[in-house]
Amino acid sequence: MASPAGTATSPSPQPSPFAELVKGPSGLDKVVLRGLRNCSAEVCLYGGQVTSWKNDHGEELLFMSSKAIFKPPKAIRGGIPICFPQFGAHGNLEQHGFARNRFWTIDNNPPPLPLNPAIKAFVDLILKPSEEDLKIWPHSFEFRLRIALGPGGDLSLTSRIRNTNTDGRPFSYTFAYHTYFSVSDIRQVVGFSPFNLFSALPQPCEVRVEGLETMDYLDNLKAKERFTEQGDAIVFESEIDKVYLSAPSKIAIIDHEKKRTFVLTKEGLPDAVVWNPWDKKAKAMQDFGDVEYKHMLCVKPAAVERPITLKPGEEWKGRLAISAVPSSYCSGQLDPLKVLQG
Ligand code: TA6
């Protein structure tokens, strides 16, 4: 089904009940995707960036800084920024490339991309380099991005990047879906469960990541030195900035307080970056609240260790699907409430 909304520059067709192009409070165009019940997602054409994803209770699942700047050329601090054609800061490109700092348009006639017929709420975007972009990254490309909201409220992003160079030159790039998840409190909480009065053992932490145990990673806080992660789920007590290499296709973020688990499924994206700035870095960022680090966690499916190389005419596809499921498990430990009710 072609994208139901119009391009940012052309009059939009009749809005569909599932996808509508509107003007956001910041004055930026955005597409609102409406799923069943109160599920929704919003995609800002500036940056091609998902800026909101809500569950069927209308709860916001992604983190957006209260100090985010919705004004080009600054990248919006939250949601799912697209990092292309580079992840990180090297060479003459700005950090994380320029795709998140450009205006995307709606692609009303994308090349066919199989879609579950149950999915009605989706939009196809496209980005091509401007003359200015070609001066800083001299490669022609077509970057097509489909954002879809499934009937169960799951969110998926599918990127298709094609080398359209006419001079026969290949190009290489790194990539990440810089996903900001909203969490109750990132800090490891060690307490004693009122449900288990006889236990002197510390109870499960508030937020943990499962699926990256024992994986090798590059630590951005230690000159990108390579280490191996320990064997337990990851918990958080200080700044973290790690690129996990050849990570599994499924990663879980368990928020014990909210009884919610985010399940990430990635394709074409071998690595996963985990980032929380913690207190010092939070204070140093003008578009991030001093204590907002407590309520966010970035887990970014990515291709970082080995850049992707495309010959002219070749196309790469990278997909991220995220679901938010009620969870009463934390590393296999049953939720005390459930046990008590059992
Ligand atoms: O996780 C990698 C990283 O580069 C961090 O070092 C931090 O800078 C984060 O991404 C956010 O980058 P940004 O350019 O969006 O401020």
UniProtKB/TrEMBL annotation:
Pfam families: Aldose_epim. Substrate binds at residues 77, 95, 100. It comes from the Eukaryota. The keyword ATP-binding does not apply. Keywords: Isomerase. Its EC number is 5.1.3.15. InterPro entries: Aldose_1/G6P_1-epimerase (IPR008183), G6P_1-epimerase (IPR025532), Gal_mutarotase_sf_dom (IPR011013), GH-type_carb-bd (IPR014718). It catalyses: alpha-D-glucose 6-phosphate = beta-D-glucose 6-phosphate. Belongs to the glucose-6-phosphate 1-epimerase family. This is glucose-6-phosphate 1-epimerase. The gene is gb25478.
